[in-house]
TrEMBL record:
<dbReference type="Pfam" id="PF24382">
    <property type="entry name" value="DUF7538"/>
</dbReference>
<protein>
    <submittedName>
        <fullName>Uncharacterized protein</fullName>
    </submittedName>
</protein>
<feature type="compositionally biased region" description="Basic and acidic residues">
    <location>
        <begin position="62"/>
        <end position="78"/>
    </location>
</feature>
<feature type="region of interest" description="Disordered">
    <location>
        <begin position="50"/>
        <end position="92"/>
    </location>
</feature>
<dbReference type="InterPro" id="IPR055960">
    <property type="entry name" value="DUF7538"/>
</dbReference>
Length: 92
């Protein structure tokens, strides 16, 4: 496992998936999956269907549409893992 991924999985809720780490976040009526990719040093946000929306599919979310508390949490987790928090702001 790559070191940045190993460092992230030590943070609450993160788990490793190959060259990526993922965490799920629920707030209000929203669910997100957040993915960090070590090879490209990028963070992606996905809107995840709720239990009430069984037929829904995950969809990428533009960074500007992600709630600020979630973005702050992700940057905090990156910082705790020793990863440059600037990667959270990088566009694809």
């Amino acid at each position: 496992m790559r070191e940045p991924i190993a460092a992230l999985v030590r943070q609450e809720g993160w788990r490793a998936e190959g060259a990526a780490a993922r965490v799920h976040y629920e707030g209000g009526n929203d669910r997100y999956a957040v993915e960090f990719y070590a090879d490209s040093a990028r963070v992606l946000y996905w809107s995840v269907p709720t239990d009430d929306d069984e037929g829904g599919t995950a969809a990428p979310v533009p960074r500007d549409d992600v709630p600020d508390p979630l973005r702050r949490r992700v940057r905090g987790d990156l910082d705790e893992a020793g990863i440059d928090t600037g990667v959270e702001r990088r566009e694809l």
